[in-house]
Design a protein that fits this description.
This protein has 107 residues and is mainly α. Helices cover 76% and strands 0% of the residues. 8% of the residues are buried. InterPro entries: Brnchd-chn_aa_trnsp_AzlD (IPR008407).
Amino acid sequence: MNYVLLILGMAVITWLIRAAVFVLGEPHRVSAACAHGARLRARHRDDAIIVPMTVSPHGTDAELTWRNPQLVGALAAVAVSALTRRPLLTIAVGLAVFFLWQGVVLK
């Protein structure tokens, strides 16, 4: 199947579902517990995508060594995030460590 058509189809379906909720739905407040759960669900969805990609970048076995630049960059980003709680700094340091590790240390 053509990947472009697949992605466009998913985008159209997602847009239609969201538009239907706004157009047909009655406005109401969501409880604090539901809002908190929705925020956690998004975070866990991202973790489910990022962690396997970081631990197993080639898709076979886990590569828990210093020669895995994705893992080293992710660990640096976790440390910066835990210390500063600044998302932009976390992203910048994680990417810088990843590219530095990949380009200089592993060269």
